[in-house]
Design goal:
It contains 1 helix and 3 strands, in the order βββα. The protein is an alpha+beta fold. It has a domain of about 55 residues: Ubiquitin-like (UB roll), CATH 3.10.20. It has a 3-stranded antiparallel β-sheet with strand order 1-2-3. It is flat. It starts with 17 loop residues before the first strand and ends in a 28-residue tail after the last helix. The structure holds zinc ion. Zinc ion (ZN) binds next to loops. The site of zinc ion has 8 residues, from loops.
Length: about 90
Amino acid sequence: MNVETGSAVPCPKCGQPTHQDLVKTAIWQGERLSVVEDVPAQVCDNCMEQFYDDTTTEAIRRLSEQGFPPGSATREILVSVFSLANVLTPEGT
Ligand SMILES: [Zn+2]
């Protein structure tokens, strides 16, 4: 899954070189979390910021508009959920 890039696109955020990669992104819709993988992105070597081209952004937007139909999911994963409620003590205690 190695994608070679002809020209290195500088990071719009910090100006450092980016490289082409396949990434995952997680999108919340209310209480429902969906994960999209195999997302082609330019990833900054310095700040790890990820940038998608228009085609990719559009594809994600379309999935989002469809409400991430479960029937279209390629697989499901078990996600661990952590709470800070027991970690962060309320002020004054
Ligand atoms: Zn950067």
